[in-house]
Amino acid sequence: MTPLSRRVLATTALAALLVGCGGGQGDDASRTARHAAAAPSSHASANSVPPLERSVPVGLRIPAIGVDTPVMRLGLAADGTVEVPPVTDDDRAGWYRHSPTPGQVGPAVVLGHVTVGTHGDGVFRHLARLHRGDRIEARLENGTAAEFRVTAVRTVAKADFPTDDVYGDVDRPELRLITCGGPRVGEEYRDNVIAFAELASTSPAPA
Q: What InterPro entries is this protein classified in (predicted)?
């Protein structure tokens, strides 16, 4: 990912997560995003699975929490924030198209709702129940399946969103699933739930 892409991702994605889930972006969140853009993280790779070529995700399965969803593409809204999936009764996850695709080197970012207004539960309603080692399968447009294993699940206050950990540079294929969580007041949630995962295996596209 280029430095410019990284800055856009860090700043706009954080804004979308705070606003799209019903919260507001305060000064503390803005400072966190600027800090992450200036000083992206780098983690040593212990994963021997070769990265994949870029291919757009079209589906996501998380057996441990009963998720099997199509994946839509998310870009930027008119106000410069990342789009979020529409609030509908057939709620889907959304991949931010300016992040790596699942299996490429870097953090692929997928967003989903925890609730969808009057429609009830969102696609990531049970994201906080994931545990280390749980499997996440991303189905890609070219027919490849990229299997990830959860390495951590964190619930964090939106005001303390760990932008550097989520969007900073990594030297291996990783995945971030993000939704809202914590106490709810009206239509707003206090926290974000973030599942971190790393590539564990791939299945090649059929010949």
A: Sortase, Sortase_dom-sf, Sortase_F
Q: Give the Cα separation of 110 and 93 in Å (integer).
A: 7
Minimal CA–CA distance to 78: which of 18, 12, 162, 23? 12
Burial degree of 34 (CB within 10 A; 0-12, 13-18, 19+): middle
Domains delineated in the chain: 3-39+54-203 (2.40.260.10)
**How does pLDDT run across 38-78, given as a tens digit for each residue?**
333 334 344 589 999 999 999 999 999 999 999 999 988 88
Using CA atoms, how far apart are residues 135 and 119, in angstroms rounded to an integer?
27
Q: Are 92 and 123 spatial neighbours (Cβ–Cβ below 8 Å)?
A: yes
Rounded Cα gap, residues 146 and 57, in angstroms:
9
CA dist 25 and 22 (Å) reads 10
Cβ proximity of 79 and 18 under 8 Å = no
Residue type, 53: E
